[in-house]
Amino acid sequence: MIRFQYFPRQVVDAGGNRWDWALLPLVLATLVLLAYGARQMIAPYQIGAVLPISLDPTSLPYYLLRTTLRMFIALAASLLFSFIFAALAAKVRVCEKVLVPMLDILQSIPVLGFLSITVTGFIALFPGNLFGVECAAIFAIFTSQAWNMAFSLYQSMRTVPNELSEAARVFQLSGWQRFWRLELPFAMPQLLWNMMMSMSGGWFFVVASEAISVSGQDIKLPGIGSYIAAAIDARDLGAIGWAIAAMGIGILLYDQLFFRPLLAWADKFRFEATGSDAAQSSWLLTLLRRTDVIQKVARAGIAVFERSFTWFRKTHDGTSILARARPAPAWQSRAADAVIAALVLIALWQLSGFIHAEVGWAETGHVFVLGFYTLIRVLLLIALAALVWVPVGIWIGLNPRWADRLQAIAQFLAAFPANLMFPIAVLAIVHFGLNPNIWLAPLMVLGTQWYILFNVIAGASTVPTELRYAAQNLGLSGWLKWKRYLLPAIFPSFVTGAITASGGSWNASIVAEFVSWGPTTLQAQGLGSYIAQMTAAGDFPRIALGIGVMCVFVMGLNHFVWRRLYRIAESKMHS
């Protein structure tokens, strides 16, 4: 029998001692730091006031606290968004038809586009201080985190094994009970790995989100991103090195204090009938399990939460006529399709008028050709990244001891700002006389390849132990082992990683196909360089055209490639 337990039983150490007093300073220090950081974030700084960013390394701990607090606030908002999106898209057919394409569009829109639009709105909501700018920065980080987590939870909810779904029907679980008792616990291991990837991916945008230009003013919020921006402006390589070191320390701290305990705790949610002989460990989780006060508080909180299961339960039993499944009327689906089709036709009509009046059809055709150039780069880069990281991710996921050792390193590599590598690439291409159309392409996947690695690790780490034993007993080896065992086991997770890596690569093409360092500028023919050039020229109609064409390519790729692979994962891999 498979049992999902929300909080582990109380554990006492060999001497029977509790760890309340040992843990108390850690809890108090965390609360003090969070309170101080939150108070500073809502302090009434005046717009236009000078906010100097000191390059003194002693300021980095404070900047690290501010940046980490912003990222965790964005992570919490992303988690809430993922719950709502995945529940609606996986359970309501009409919502799925609208929400999944909408998410495809949102992830293909450049993060800087969100920032430029939202800063003015947030400033208008909070006039007279910088809290609106703080909200805009958090929202920009949110847009770099939410899509990956939402796709992960949606994919997991669509691939719940049939035997677990049947058990939920037998026990007459309501939608609320099914989500918290079955779907979220089943998705928890993979969701946590995607939360780590989203947290790391947010570091790529901290420079843009904390050093903001709006209404002719440069506003730098205290944080690691603004510190890096100031160091780049001053060409202070030493300060950049200090910032990278501080970022590494921050990643190590929240890995040990947040993600590693959660991953060790979530090991109980693995879908298997036998216990795992090698699970991740966490010294903090062990400390929490040995702390009487934490156990009592956790049990009280869980008891309050579980009361909601009685509030949102089915009002009939399994023998009632109300328990019979009732298919939705056909007219509802047809009406929803008609409304969506009407909206699409109206949008196409407006779009054709915009193209005819503002940019012309010849320009539109030229942009579509550039889009095909970028499409080829994206597909080749995703294929190459998959060849490299799928075997590595499977090996790490199947070896929890190595996952413990490499987890923080993988997070640091994923969080390392890829744009710091652009000047090196420019110098190398110029020095060796390389073709920018070919050698600028790898810059597109520097920051997005990690989506594949983290998702494959998550998929491999949730492979049931009995399935591993079965593969060993059958003597599977070589290509047969990959074909019959490894690739099917991680296939849904790989598709999730590939779809987010693909969308991120399209986004990154804007800065990767048009790169400058000092007086040297390199350009590759493609849709990303077109958008970058039009942005620099301030040609808003052509910026809109470029982003619109990018959305068309991303949605087409998702519909004709990734969605088909999703259906294969649902029908064949988890039937």
Task: Write up this protein.
The protein is mainly α and 575 residues long. The protein is 73% helix and 3% strand. The chain has a two-stranded antiparallel sheet with strand order 1-2. The longest helix is centred in the middle third of the chain and has 37 residues, at 361-397. The model is unreliable at 1-21 (pLDDT under 50).
The tally of beta strands, per DSSP, is 4
**Main beta sheet strand tally, sense and closure:** 2 strands, antiparallel
Low-confidence stretches: 1-21
Straight-line distance between termini: 20 Å
Radius of gyration: 25 Å
Percent range for β-strand residues = under 5%
Please bin the fraction of helical residues: over 70%
Reading the helices and strands in chain order gives HHHHHHHHEEHHHHHHHHHHHHHEEHH
From the helix content, strand content and strand pairing, which structural class follows? mainly alpha
Number of helices: 23
Instruction: Give the overall form.
Output: globular
- Overall pLDDT: 77
- Main β-sheet, spatial strand arrangement: 1-2
How is this structure best summarized?
The chain has 575 residues and is mainly alpha-helical.
Secondary structure elements and pairings:
Elements lengths: L19 H22 L18 H32 L1 H16 L2 H15 L5 H28 L3 H9 L4 H28 L3 H5 E4 L2 E4 L3 H10 L3 H29 L17 H7 L2 H15 L1 H4 L18 H30 L1 H37 L2 H16 L6 H11 L3 H4 L9 H13 L3 H9 L4 H35 L1 E4 L2 E4 L3 H11 L2 H34 L2
List its traits.
single chain; 575 residues; mainly alpha; two-stranded antiparallel sheet; 73% helix; disordered N terminus
